[in-house]
Write a structure and sequence with these properties.
Elements lengths: L6 H9 L13 H13 L5 E2 L13 E2 L21 H14 L6 H10 L1 H5 L6 H29 L4 E4 L5 H4 L5 E5 L2 E9 L2 E6 L5 E6 L14 E6 L4 E6 L5 E4 L3 E4 L5 E2 L6 E2 L11 E2 L2 E2 L2 H24 L1
Parallel strand pairs: 5-8, 6-13
Antiparallel strand pairs: 1-2, 3-4, 4-5, 6-7, 7-11, 8-9, 9-12, 10-11, 14-15
Helix pairs in contact: 3-6
Length: about 325
């Protein structure tokens, strides 16, 4: 993409360097990248809000009209550089390869500042490469969200399913990809791809689902995001869980545990037994008192049966 810079535009970009000075010793990488992009593209008239053709598109300020998400978009892929892992990893690789200074956070930011036109400029040596890395994620994400909309529309034919545009503030600030609006109210959905989903039961009766996915559940408040929807557009599989923090466990290796049944799924499971770790293994004695796993399971069963009957009574009213 060829854009010719005038001398005044180039000087303005150089002066904007001072904006990012405060981040040189900060861990706020995302804010640093956003300000760096602004220092480049605002002088070129390529900075602002995307057009707002309807209520499903309300963006903040960012790079526009260059490296768009699609032919229909004005919002730039560059705006995703602040959080994209692949882009950050590639920038770090280039820094390690070409920087002769001691590898520190401050020197990393200094190096980006010195090379920002190569990394992010409209005709930068590495800009298109970084855009391509990000586009892989965007294309896959778009297909997953389109599949999610289709599933939800078929499940709720009378509801309005709203999917927000690229860069929409409800997505970037609150994590809302889709909103389901019906006569009974509305629910906000965060859509994520999944690698595997499994169902388990432990010896003491605990049951849960394990989902391997790049989702940090704690980032999404229950108030903003009501539902996590995991989808794979290639296999046409999906599963939805309520975002209830006391029913979700964030495990190592990008694994989440959901201690409630899914809201919806088209997947079938063979529940596997999973032993607890040795530290939490059921014991036969506790403080010298005999424990009984069978008694514990029978107690759970009786309580569950009471809850089932109570729910049946409420549903029949």
């Amino acid at each position: 993409m060829k854009i010719v810079l005038t001398e005044s535009q180039l000087n303005s970009i150089i002066k904007k360097t001072l904006i990012v000075e405060k981040y040189k010793s900060s861990v706020d990488y995302a804010a640093y990248i956003r300000d760096t992009l602004r220092s480049i593209y605002e002088p070129l008239g390529l900075w602002g809000q995307a057009p707002n053709p309807n209520e499903d598109c309300q963006t903040g300020e960012g790079v526009i009209n260059v490296f768009p998400h699609s032919k229909k978009d004005k919002w730039s892929v560059l705006n995703r550089f602040d959080t994209n892992r692949k882009v950050k990893t590639r920038i770090q690789e280039l820094y390690v390869r070409f920087s002769r200074l001691k590898h520190t956070e401050k020197n990393f930011y200094n190096w980006i500042e010195k090379n920002k036109m190569k990394l992010f400029g409209p005709d930068g040596k590495y800009t298109q490469e970084l855009v391509n890395l990000n586009m892989d994620t965007i294309i896959s994400g778009n297909k997953n969200e389109e599949y999610a909309v289709k599933v939800l529309q078929e499940r709720f034919p009378d509801a309005k399913i709203r999917r927000y545009c690229s860069g929409d503030l409800r997505d970037t600030q609150k994590g809302i990809d889709i909103t389901i609006e019906s006569a009974g109210g509305s629910s906000n959905v965060q859509v994520k791809p999944f690698i595997t989903v499994s169902s388990f039961v432990e010896p003491d009766g605990d049951t849960f689902f394990e989902v391997k996915s790049y989702l940090e559940a704690n980032r999404y408040s229950e108030k903003n995001v009501n539902i996590f929807m995991f989808v794979d557009h290639l296999s046409k599989k999906y599963i939805l869980f309520v975002n209830k923090k006391n029913k979700i466990g964030q495990m190592a290796g990008s694994v989440l545990r959901f201690y409630e049944p899914p809201l919806m799924t088209n997947m079938t499971f063979i529940t596997k037994e999973k032993r607890k770790s040795k530290k939490s293994e059921p014991t036969t004695k506790l403080f010298g008192i005999e424990t009984d796993i069978l008694k514990n399971l029978e107690f759970r069963k009786s309580q569950i049966e009471k809850m089932i009957e109570k729910q049946k009574t409420q549903n029949s009213k």
